[in-house]
Each structure stands twice: as structure tokens, then as C-alpha cells.
Specification:
This protein is an alpha+beta fold and 424 residues long. It folds into 2 domains: 4-105, Helix Hairpins; 121-423, 2-Layer Sandwich (BirA Bifunctional Protein, domain 2), CATH 3.30.930. The chain is 42% helix and 21% strand. It contains 13 helices and 19 strands. Helix 3 runs antiparallel to helix 4 and helix 5 packs across helix 12 (391-401). The longest helix is centred in the first third of the chain and has 40 residues, at 26-65. It binds one RNA strand of 92 nucleotides through residues 39-40, 43-44, 46-48, 50-51, 53-54, 56-62, 64-65, 72-73, 75-80, 83, 246, 373-374, 378.
Length: 424
Amino acid sequence: MLTINLIREKKEFIIERLKVKNFEAEEIINRILALDSSRREIQSKTDLMQAEMNRISKEVGSLMKDGKRDEAEAAKGKTYSLKEDIKSLSDKLIPIDNDLKNEIIRLPNLPHESVAPGHGADDNVKVREGGVMPLLYDSALPHWDLIKKYDIIDFDLGIKLTGAGFPVYLGKGAKLQRALISFFLDEGEKAGYREVMPPIMVNEESGFGTGQLPDKEGQMYHATIDNFYLIPTAEVPVTNIYRDVILNADMLPFKNIAYTPCFRREAGSWGAHVRGLNRLHQFDKVEIVQIAHPDHSYKSLENMVSHVEGLVSKLDLPYRILRLCGGDMSFTSALTYDFEVWSAAQKRWLEVSSVSNFESFQANRLKCRFKEKGDKQTRLVHTLNGSALALPRIVAAILENNQTESGIKIPSVLIPYTGFDMIN
RNA sequence: GGAGAGAUGGCAGAGUGGUCGAAUGCGGCGGUCUCGAAAACCGUUGUUCGCCUUCCGGCGAACCGGGGGUUCGAAUCCCCCUCUCUCCGCCA
């Protein structure tokens, strides 16, 4: 969420910037500013009355000690009406605080200055592309047929065990998953990331910290008996490691990498283009998360983009990098690069990674702050994350792009991990 | 699942109704000493909100797991909730 200070100081600027995300902020901001000023007015008044109250109470105490009972009683008498006034004023403050918080939470993050306006995928800006698109032979198959042909992923079995969108990986299919996870983690470690294996269920506070709650409640699986949520991405537990802390500036940036299964209900989003591995309820992903100094967070973002680019290049997948336009960006992001790989049999680009700088938007929710050495004041950190990488669509692309009449070739960087070079 | 104990500052740990934002120790930071370091000694050390201050900062309020209550006054007393630990049971 945006900070109240920024809203107070840069109202017009915020309204302008949010237009890039096609968000009309003026009305909300006016409400926020009105709530904020009445909040401050009440705060000032109650502070004064409370100070008076404290003064009298101390007086009563010392009078009692001196044995001046009558004077103490007289002083007590002065507090009764004061006490009521404080109570009624501070009761007014509670709904104002709540309303204020609820309004502020509705404002999306400001897009970075480099973000282009736009309404959807067509307005995204292609930054660069790489790799070579394969030319497939005539009888080439989409991945949902390939997985049956080679018996490496079974959707029907998943339906039996759980339901649609929960595939079962078998034999070389399962081994390929494990190989990709290990490859991604090892590459991350080489790039200076610390490996983390977090819980894959989180509590409500964590869900709020990264912005999944309250807005996207319906997108997460909810274990209601214990009120835990299955994570939709490792971003949630890993970023929440830094919830409610004050860090030293010289420790930044923190670079963590985590493999987790991810769970998404994807309520209402099933339809065209979601066959096979394109969209699942449970899938595997390796995520990179950075906690960065605000002065250097865009440097971190560039590093993360290069890291992910290195991964898709090493896997020999044709890819392109897009800078998302305002209309296609998430609520919480300031700048997002999407990575897409070419799926040769589907003849489509598939999104495999989304790398974002959230600036202080998540940090403000998380209360993740830092201090410069010798400095008294705290500042909010910047948080960033990106997939490095999500498995299913990578698998889809590998299967489709690398198919030959005699089987599917495993990218050479993965062979040490799989122990085989062909699926056949 | 059963029984019990507990939750205090970065950590450990005192504090059972009044100058307690909180002793003490450790850690951190600054200094003295030293060629330098260690030790020793001295000083300093939380967060949030509001008001004032062009900076440095000053004043006030709140915060001792969370919420409510009693009281002139609550870390301390009462109620509710959450969480943690120990023992027993079960168990990869």
C-alpha cells in the first residue's frame, strides 16, 4: 500500500500516475485526505486531554503519599468528565482509522516512469528476444498428446486422486520435474541466492503482508480448520520472512531462492487456452526474492531479469521479454517484465516468468524497514520477486520444441540432472 | 487428543497498583587507553502517531502477545482470544 505521507504530499502526482494503470484515484484520494485530516485533528485533541489526565493522576498519587486525602479527592473529581470526553473522542477514532486503512488498501501501486500506458497484452513493450524457433515436422504434437504418447504425465489419474488441474508426473516425467528444480536452484545459488525451503501453508498475516489478502482471498486454497492458506507462490512465505523487522542498510540486498509447490484455485478462469500444462491448480516453481535498498532496487531488478534470461537461454528455448503496460500490470507492481517462451506445437507464446519490483508497496504492508548506519529514522525497503522458473509451461515448451520422430531430446544442461538424454 | 506452565526492549531476564518505556546482564554504537587489537573503564542505545522546527532537534500521546474491563492511575488486578513451551498419548 502507498504511504499516507506520499498521498498527503503528492496527491496530483499519484492521480496522474495511476491513470497509466487505468485507475481513477481522485475520489478515493479525496476521501483518504478527509479521513486523514479528521484523524489527525482527533489525535491532537485526545493527546492534549490525555496529557492533562496523566498530569492529574500523578498529582493524586503524590497527594496520597503526603496524606492529603481531601486534596486528592478534589483532584479525582476533575477527572470524571475528562475521562468521558477522552473515551467518546477516541471511540470516534476507531471507525475513522478503519475506513482510512480500507481506502488506502484500495489504491494500486504507482507504475514506474518507464511503464507505458495501455489496456492489455497488445500494449506491452517487447524489450528483446532470443533463441531460435524450431521448425517442426508435419506430424508434431502438442504437449498434451506427447505426455500421453510417452506416458510421463497423467491428468486422468490426477482427477481420480484429487481433481482437474492436479497432474500426476510419472517416470521420466517426474524425473524431469526434479531435474528442472535442481537446475534452477543450482543456478540461483551460483548467482548468490540463498536457498530457502519454507512452509507451503501460511497464516492470515502472511497473506496480508504480500497482498493476497484480503483482495484475492478466493484465489487461494484455505484450510479452514486451522485458518491456513496454501501458498500460491513462494513469494508469500519468503517475503514474509522480512515482515515486521528493521534491517541494517549494509545488509541489503537479501537474495533468497525457494522451490515450492504452488496452489491456485484459478476460480472462474478456465476456458480457452488452458489445456494440458498451460494452467494448473498445483504446479512447481522456483522463485527468487530480493529485499533491496530503495536506491539500488532497479539494479536488482535488472540482475533478476538477466538471471532469468540466462535460464531460458541455457534451456535453448526461444523467448521474448516484455515490459508490461500499465493495464496489464498487477495491482502491487511498479515495474514488471514478463518472460514468454515459444511453444512450437501450440504456436503460442507462454508466460513462464514475471519479474517485478514492488518498490515500497509490499514493504509498507509488511512493515519491513531499514536504517542507515548512525541514522535514527527508518525507511521502507523495496521488495522484488520473479519466477526462476515456473515448471509446467517450461516443460510444455521443452516437450513440444524438442520432439523428434524418435523421441524428445532433453536440453543438454539438464542431462546431468535427469540421467537420460531422450524421452522415448 | 489430555494435563500443566508461560508470552516484558535485538537477546537473556527482573519487575504484582503510582516519577516504569521499564532494573540488570549480553549484544550494538561512540569514546578513553593502545602502534593496532583484546581486556578494562566511561557514555549511549526501541517503535509508532500527533504538534512544532528549513537542518540538528524539541514537546506530547500510545505501545510490556491481541482485544475488552476495573481504577484518579495498569506491565502489574479481572474477562475473552491467540500463540509458544513442557509432560502424557498418537505418529513420518
